[in-house]
Amino acid sequence: MCQSIPADKFTVPAMNESGGVTTMPVPGRRCPCCLERGDTVWVIPGKCCPVCGTPVN
Ligand SMILES: [Zn+2]
Q: Which superkingdom does the taxonomy of this entry point to (predicted)?
Protein backbone atom coordinates (compact mmCIF):
# COMPACT_ATOMS: atom_id res chain seq x y z
CA MET A 1 0.00 0.00 0.00
CA CYS A 2 1.93 2.99 -1.19
CA GLN A 3 -0.94 4.80 -2.73
CA SER A 4 -1.25 8.51 -2.28
CA ILE A 5 -4.35 10.50 -2.93
CA PRO A 6 -3.36 14.07 -3.58
CA ALA A 7 -6.72 15.76 -3.55
CA ASP A 8 -9.98 15.38 -1.76
CA LYS A 9 -11.71 14.70 -5.02
CA PHE A 10 -12.75 11.73 -7.07
CA THR A 11 -14.32 11.21 -10.42
CA VAL A 12 -17.75 9.94 -11.25
CA PRO A 13 -19.32 9.09 -14.57
CA ALA A 14 -21.50 11.91 -15.79
CA MET A 15 -23.40 12.78 -18.91
CA ASN A 16 -21.94 15.55 -20.97
CA GLU A 17 -23.67 17.89 -23.37
CA SER A 18 -23.10 15.74 -26.42
CA GLY A 19 -24.82 12.78 -24.79
CA GLY A 20 -21.73 10.78 -24.03
CA VAL A 21 -20.50 9.67 -20.69
CA THR A 22 -17.52 11.42 -19.25
CA THR A 23 -15.97 11.68 -15.84
CA MET A 24 -15.91 14.78 -13.77
CA PRO A 25 -14.26 15.54 -10.48
CA VAL A 26 -16.60 16.02 -7.57
CA PRO A 27 -15.79 16.83 -3.99
CA GLY A 28 -15.92 13.74 -1.83
CA ARG A 29 -14.76 12.15 1.34
CA ARG A 30 -13.35 8.78 2.08
CA CYS A 31 -15.52 6.55 4.25
CA PRO A 32 -13.74 6.29 7.62
CA CYS A 33 -15.08 2.80 8.30
CA CYS A 34 -13.91 1.40 5.00
CA LEU A 35 -10.63 3.26 5.39
CA GLU A 36 -10.00 1.38 8.62
CA ARG A 37 -10.35 -1.86 6.72
CA GLY A 38 -7.93 -0.62 4.11
CA ASP A 39 -10.52 0.22 1.49
CA THR A 40 -10.78 3.64 -0.03
CA VAL A 41 -14.43 4.31 -0.69
CA TRP A 42 -15.41 7.75 -1.88
CA VAL A 43 -18.67 9.13 -0.58
CA ILE A 44 -20.36 12.35 -1.53
CA PRO A 45 -20.74 14.38 1.68
CA GLY A 46 -24.25 14.00 3.05
CA LYS A 47 -24.68 10.56 1.47
CA CYS A 48 -24.13 7.12 2.92
CA CYS A 49 -21.21 4.89 2.04
CA PRO A 50 -22.35 2.47 -0.70
CA VAL A 51 -20.28 -0.31 0.84
CA CYS A 52 -20.99 -0.18 4.57
CA GLY A 53 -23.81 2.36 4.79
CA THR A 54 -22.02 4.75 7.10
CA PRO A 55 -23.30 8.30 6.70
CA VAL A 56 -20.53 10.64 5.63
CA ASN A 57 -20.84 14.37 6.17
ZN1 LIG B 1 -17.86 2.51 4.17
A: Eukaryota
pLDDT digits (tens, 9 = 90+) for 1-27: 666 655 566 666 666 677 777 766 667
Residues 6+ apart with CB under 8 A from 48: 54, 55, 56
Q: Which residues line ion ligand 1, judged by CB < 5 Å?
A: 31, 33-34, 41, 49, 51-52, 54
Contact 53, 43 (CB under 8 A): no
Contacts (Cβ under 8 Å, ≥6 apart) of 33: 49, 52, 54
Domain boundaries, the chain: 1-51
Q: What is the pLDDT of residues 35-57, one digit of tens each?
A: 999 999 988 889 999 999 999 98
